Amino acid sequence: MDDILYFANTTTGNIEVELREFDLEAHLCRVLRAHEYLAKQKGLEFNVIWRTAAYTLASVDISHLMQVLSNVLNNAVKFTENGSISCDVLFEKQSLKIEISDTGKGMTAEQLAHTFTPFEQADNSIQRRHGGTGLGLSLAKQLVEAMQGEISISSTFGKGTNVYIAVPLKSVSKQKLQAVSVNWAVCSQDHQLLNNLANMGVKHHQLSWPIDIDAFTQEDNILIDESYIKALWGANWLQSISTATNNYILVASAKKEHRPANCSCHILPTEPLYPDTLRELLDNVHTSNDEGLAAQNAQLHGQILIAEDNKTNQLLLEKQCQKLGIKAVMVDDGIAALRALETGQFDLLLTDCHMPDLDGFKLTEQLRNQEKFKHLPIIGFTADDSKECFNKALKSGMNSVLFKPYKLNELYNRLAEFIDLNSESLQDSKDNTDISIQGIKDKQHWLNVFGNENDAKMLAEVFIGSLQSDLSSLQENLKSQNSAKVSASIHKLKGAIVMLQYPPLSELIVTTESSFNQQHDTLIVEKLIAELNDVIDKIKLWL
């Protein structure tokens, strides 16, 4: 229904394009990772070819671009049963070019001719099997053309489909590495990795093969392919370097399950290789340089439990928690998290939403069914930034969601909502709720999110204007004691608030809707109205 209403608006020529500067590299990697996860769940290969890593920032309509890219990737995953999906990204000075190819069922020439026709799909059985209105690519074409770009499709029946997207960019710039002066010794033949290093401006020199053990140990920072090190030291290469004194060893590996012990060794996943991961790992070579965050902010205190099955992410999270003053206990899955919570004392649970056996959603649901864990702060983190995933997280009982990739200051701000800065004890659950909701009332929150005062004020004014209108309707329906209309009004409020993506406030509206639908308790709704009116009043004070 949303697609139909949106399409009706776009056909009148009312597509507004809003250009703002974004970390385009981070947004692109986020949406690619989300679909990599979906593809690999189906047993498909997912390949990423990033043909430059020089640029990270650009002015673009990020909302429209992500909508188009998600639509095309969704189709590729949906209609490919075997084989692979490949994404070729060319991030240039004046344009972004993305080519997405799959080995799906493909289309005939006749089917291809109707690809961009609204309400028509290549095969009538598609809607029966997969659902949808058949508007996706029509919307994508309109959005791309509104951005002065182009989109084209080629396909061979029985072999697959290729989608080409090109969008012009404004104000493209580079983001300097924090550890720009670090010199890396590199032993790799991977052209994409070497090109990314060169484009990022990383100082590096290649070690000749075979690697001399003395040359290895004398280098401060070394990046090496796992295949090289296996050939040199055999399958037990981890034990061979467990006592290495190098400052930082980065191992490019096709597998993600290695966890080196007792050395400064970190894994860079290469299938696929994401430039933002490479950039973050390179920046972490000097952990004290991370934007001076630890020096600028008060240290957090306490002990948290982290459930994460990806070893690379475990290493990064451990380092980040060390910088923030947090003691972190790491477990590999949801079942291990349950055992750890039963035997240990933790101030917060940070859990990956997608894990084998017991994922973060089910883990949270099980914990919320136990009285002693009803008020345990739980933060989920995921690369899937869809509204469905966000809502699912909140409905499972999570307090908040952190979307990958995230920066250290984002992790700090999210943890600071639930962990006391001055002591190891948490405040009671009521105080935690007040602190969490307080953030959206403060001017600093809006400045942090939207970057500058003009944007912050404009969006805050739009937000409270819409909120006042929706609250007025809710109050009228509450007075008339029409439960169906009250429920509909809450649902409308939820749609606007959830899209703002401020987790504590989203949690409040989701919880209220669920409670009212089950109990029809008007006191719950009156409490929501009072809280939202207070939000409006506090925002008005700084507007």
Could you describe the 3D structure shown?
The protein has 543 residues and is α/β, with parallel strands linked by helices. It is 48% helix and 18% strand. The protein is built from 23 helices and 18 strands. The strands form four sheets. Strands 2-4-5-7-6 form a five-stranded mixed sheet, covered by helices on one side. Strands 10-9-11-12-13 form a five-stranded parallel sheet. Helix 20 (453-479) packs antiparallel against helix 21 and helix 22 runs antiparallel to helix 23. The model is unreliable at 1-12, 119-135, 257-262, 287-297 and 422-435 (pLDDT under 50).
Features:
alpha/beta, globular, 18 strands, 5-stranded mixed sheet, 23 helices, 18% strand, 48% helix, disordered N terminus, 543 residues, single chain, 5-stranded parallel sheet
Q: What is this structure, in a nutshell?
A:
The chain is of the alpha/beta class and 543 residues long. It contains 23 helices and 18 strands.
How many beta-strand segments? Answer: 18
Structural class: alpha/beta
Helix content: 40-55%
- The largest beta-sheet arranges its strands as 2-4-5-7-6
What is the makeup of the main sheet? 5 strands, mixed
Radius of gyration: 25 Å
What is the general shape? globular
pLDDT below 50 for ≥5 consecutive residues: which ranges?
1-12, 119-135, 257-262, 287-297, 422-435
In whole angstroms, the N-to-C terminal distance is 35 Å
Count of runs of 4 or more consecutive helical residues = 23
Strand content: 15-25%
The average pLDDT is: 77
